[in-house]
Amino acid sequence: MAVYNLSINGKTHRVDVDPDTPLLWVLRDNLKMTGTKFGCGVGQCGACTIHLDGKAERSCMVSFSDVGEQKVITIEGLSENGDHPLQKAWLEHDVSQCGYCQPGQIMSAAALLKSNPNPSDAEIETAMQGNICRCGTYQRIKEAIRSVAHP
Question: How far apart are CA 75 and CA 126, in angstroms?
């Protein structure tokens, strides 16, 4: 076990865990931030997507000790009141069905729009292709992202 200080959602958290523990489990089990979901555990589904220094990453594939000084943002930290423009767009476009994948979808979309405020449909599809939605709401996801994009 090792003690680490980690910046998550703008706050410093002190955690004592095995250095090889995936960030996903530190967030969920140690810090009780359950918005980040476990999906496949091998980085293929996108349900566990968080931001590391603004870049979308699969938290199941990041060892806790590899985070270092990077700033972590989870779905809980995207906005205090759930009023991020993408969260509002998700509601306006009725994106969620079961909702399980949506935190990861929103985090991937937020990273895309931060780096490219006006993506083409092809750029949206490329950025989102690593996020699986078993309910198949891909068209509504794309529409929601498009509605937040800035020309």
Answer: 21
Interhelix angle 102-115/85-92, rounded to 10 degrees, is: 130
Cα–Cα dist 90/71, whole Å: 25
Average pLDDT value for residue range 22-26: 97
d(CA 24, CA 41): 9
Statement: residue 21 has pLDDT above 90: yes
- Interval 59-74: pLDDT, tens: 999 998 999 999 999 9
Residue 90 contacts residue 101 (beta carbons within 8 Å): no
3-state secondary structure of 118: coil
User: Which pTM value belongs to this model?
Assistant: 0.94
CATH of 85-148, one of 1.10.10.10, 1.10.150.120, 3.30.310.50, 3.40.50.300: 1.10.150.120
Read off the tokens for 41: 């555990």
Q: Running DSSP on this structure, what letter comes out for residue 59?
A: G
59 vs 22: CA distance, rounded Å: 7
Distance CA 26, CA 17 (A): 8
